Amino acid sequence: EGTRKESRGALIVLEGLDRSGKSSQCSRLVSYLEGQGISAELWRFPDRTTNVGQMISAYLSNTSQLDDHTIHLLFSANRWEKRSLMETKLKTGTTLIVDRYSYSGVAFSASKGLDIEWCKAPEIGLLAPDLVAYLDISPQKAAERGGYGDERYEKLDFQKKVAESYKTLHDVSWKVVDACQPIEDVEKQLQEIALDCVIECQKGKPLSPLLW
Ligand code: Z5A
Ligand code: MG
What we know:
This protein is α/β, with parallel strands linked by helices. Helices cover 47% and strands 13% of the residues. The site of magnesium ion has 3 residues, from helix 1.
């Protein structure tokens, strides 16, 4: 028998405003892919389990204060500390469904007034997603869903700025999904675009660095 090159997994990111449905859809998508016989894992950023993640968590819950640049770099460091494991998983055939990634990092910090190019810089060299599914919802509609909690950023005025920042980040890897549809309809659309993406990666689409 000839050598059969192990096919790689896909890096699929879900982005969107607070309450757009990312976490709900990420877990549904992982179940769906596993049901199709595809090895898949659910990941999320911030990953609050690491030391850096705990600093981020304290900041988000307002139990610590940090300079805007400092917290930006911590969010980025939280992705860098997972980069090599991410690469290993992808190369050994596991598809990763990631709840927020570099786009959240840039959109949230730029919304505070930080220079957007400065915000992008520390993300360069992380793994580029094969697909970014943007769950599109207006800040007003998102706010109506269950209301916001007490975490920093969970305010309508700030979410409006984040929505504008996200708009400047769209590129060819983005697919916009209407997040105001019923959960099952959003789910169905995500299944289709994710499956296409997984197949493309299985066929040999190369893994590449994030360059912006
Ligand atoms: N942040 C940052 O600044 N920099 C970074 O680099 C990163 C993040 C990575 C914490 O994120 C904060 O960190 C976040 C950005 C910032 N701050 N904000 N805002 P997080 O991921 O931990 O935030 P979260 O609180 O876990 O997730 P979320 O965004 O609030 O929600 P979601 O995951 O998008 O939505 P959900 O939990 O799936 O659904 C929300 C509710 O809506 C729930 O009651 C659902 O049942 C309901 N829902 C969902 N879909 C639907 C539909 N289709 N119809 C009706 N109702 C629905
Ligand atoms: Mg969530």
